């Protein structure tokens, strides 16, 4: 398909998304300060160093290395195929609901029907190792909601996710369709058993990914995927979930974003009912049919859907004051379940970039890497607060992010 923006601009967007150590939160900050991505790449090293590590600032002033250049060329080649799209923060098709995140992905790879992004969305999530009843419920709820005009969003995982996508597709052309947010590059399918399902979604629905082409399904990608699932949707339905299921974290993030949370009750003897029952005790709405959800959401508009997009200045615009853009980056969702990791006990720290409230966080993070989900559970902090403090501590040089997305203290 034709490129939907000048190639120079697209190359700049893709490069920023590929640069090591430059996360979505920092890209958004730089956009708020400098404007369009090509303006970031032509800014002086000194001006970039006010917001970035000096080494990273210097690297951005250089031409991309051969690996990044090859990845940019590959993305542009992929984009020229039918049904392939690249949505940037400045693109009118970019999902407005994602502006509610403080780290909206700078770019999204999309394959399929972009018109689904204009439809009301409802997420259905749950256990990967679901029961037969759970999968039947997910399929039936998804089909009913799709026939009512809702686009069903999920993560293409085994179990509940797959059943929800299939149910929405089985509503046919009259239905609201389905959108799968991937934890891999959009040219890969995980799990492999869902190749046929992914093909159906690409043909009749929409595949969406923030990850570069060729990215495999690594554990720390799934929490990032699920924050998008939660943000896109007006509500999240949890069908089955264990007591420590990642689906509960997805539901919590949805609640923090102002979305409705729904849960299907089950047997008190089933381990996969405990997560849903916990959500109901915490205020999630108990539902027994798809119509319960339709009636609950019929009157409400999703907070944040009409929010202004993150600042992206065009040529000639007045600059935004440095530091005006947010530097925090929330991310949560369902990855593989993890237990507590042991952090080292250390004395309180203070200094530039350190708030007294960070003491508990610094005590929890040791020299052994710890993942985001574990930190959230152990500290019981809201995701916005946790990622915001982690970002500032990383900028201050107190902690570092490992290659697999976990955090550890600098030795």
From TrEMBL:
<dbReference type="InterPro" id="IPR003488">
    <property type="entry name" value="DprA"/>
</dbReference>
<protein>
    <submittedName>
        <fullName>DNA processing protein</fullName>
    </submittedName>
</protein>
<dbReference type="InterPro" id="IPR041614">
    <property type="entry name" value="DprA_WH"/>
</dbReference>
<dbReference type="InterPro" id="IPR057666">
    <property type="entry name" value="DrpA_SLOG"/>
</dbReference>
<dbReference type="Pfam" id="PF17782">
    <property type="entry name" value="WHD_DprA"/>
</dbReference>
<dbReference type="Pfam" id="PF02481">
    <property type="entry name" value="DNA_processg_A"/>
</dbReference>
<dbReference type="InterPro" id="IPR036388">
    <property type="entry name" value="WH-like_DNA-bd_sf"/>
</dbReference>
<dbReference type="GO" id="GO:0009294">
    <property type="term" value="P:DNA-mediated transformation"/>
</dbReference>
<comment type="similarity">
    <text>Belongs to the DprA/Smf family.</text>
</comment>
<feature type="domain" description="DprA winged helix">
    <location>
        <begin position="346"/>
        <end position="405"/>
    </location>
</feature>
<feature type="compositionally biased region" description="Low complexity">
    <location>
        <begin position="314"/>
        <end position="353"/>
    </location>
</feature>
<feature type="region of interest" description="Disordered">
    <location>
        <begin position="302"/>
        <end position="359"/>
    </location>
</feature>
<feature type="domain" description="Smf/DprA SLOG">
    <location>
        <begin position="86"/>
        <end position="297"/>
    </location>
</feature>
């Amino acid at each position: 398909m034709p490129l939907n923006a000048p190639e120079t601009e697209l190359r700049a967007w893709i490069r920023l998304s590929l640069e090591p150590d430059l996360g979505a939160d920092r890209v958004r900050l730089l956009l708020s300060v400098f404007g369009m991505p090509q303006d970031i790449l032509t800014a002086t090293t000194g001006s970039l160093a006010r917001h970035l590590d000096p080494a990273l600032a210097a690297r951005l002033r250089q031409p991309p290395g051969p690996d990044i250049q090859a990845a940019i060329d590959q993305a542009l080649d992929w984009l020229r195929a039918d049904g392939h799209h690249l949505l940037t923060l400045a693109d009118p098709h970019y999902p407005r609901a994602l502006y509610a995140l403080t780290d909206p992905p700078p770019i999204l790879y999309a394959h399929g029907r972009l018109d689904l992004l204009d439809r009301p969305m409802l997420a259905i999530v749950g256990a990967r190792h679901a029961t037969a009843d759970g999968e039947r419920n997910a399929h039936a709820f998804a089909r009913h909601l799709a026939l009512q005009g809702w686009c069903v969003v999920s993560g293409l995982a085994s179990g509940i996710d797959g059943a929800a996508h299939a149910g929405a597709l089985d509503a046919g052309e009259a239905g609201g369709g389905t959108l799968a947010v991937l934890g891999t590059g959009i040219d890969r399918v995980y799990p492999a058993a869902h190749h046929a399902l992914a093909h159906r979604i690409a043909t009749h629905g929409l595949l969406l990914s923030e990850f570069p082409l060729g990215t495999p399904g690594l554990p720390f990608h799934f929490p990032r995927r699920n924050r998008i699932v939660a943000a896109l949707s007006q509500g999240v339905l949890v069908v089955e979930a264990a007591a420590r299921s990642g689906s509960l974290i997805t539901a919590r993030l949805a609640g923090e974003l102002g979305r409705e949370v729904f849960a299907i009750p089950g047997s008190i003897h089933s381990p996969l009912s405990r997560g849903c029952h916990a959500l109901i005790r915490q205020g999630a709405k108990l539902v027994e049919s798809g119509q319960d959800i339709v009636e609950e959401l019929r009157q409400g508009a999703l907070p944040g859907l009409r929010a202004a997009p993150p600042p992206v200045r065009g040529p000639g615009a007045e600059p935004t004051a440095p530091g005006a853009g947010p530097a925090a980056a929330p991310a949560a969702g369902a990855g593989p379940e993890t237990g507590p990791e042991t952090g080292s006990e250390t004395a309180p720290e203070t200094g530039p970039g350190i708030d007294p409230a960070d003491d508990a966080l610094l005590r929890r993070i040791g020299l052994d890497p710890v993942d985001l989900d574990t930190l959230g559970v152990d500290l019981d902090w809201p995701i916005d607060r946790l990622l915001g403090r982690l970002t500032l501590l990383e900028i201050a040089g107190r902690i570092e992010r490992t290659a697999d997305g976990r955090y550890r203290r600098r030795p």
